[in-house]
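Box 3.1 — From sequence to structure: Terminase large subunit
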Amino acid sequence: MKKYYEYADKVLNGEILTGTSIKLACERFKADLQREDLIFREDIVDRAIDFIGSLKHFTGKHSGKPFILEE
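Predicted structure (token representation):
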């Protein structure tokens, strides 16, 4: 299972504690997946995640280190 599906599931079942805004975003994400007028392109999402991972912090204690998307 892709991490973005797993993350939404964990938020909604309470395994990951978040605020209301994140919970609502996960609910909307799951609902949007069921809509026939929308197309969720995993290939584009995966490419965006890979791109973000190729970026590096340029200041602070993480300077020079790549961005890592985490839960």
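Summary of the box: The longest helix spans residues 20-34.
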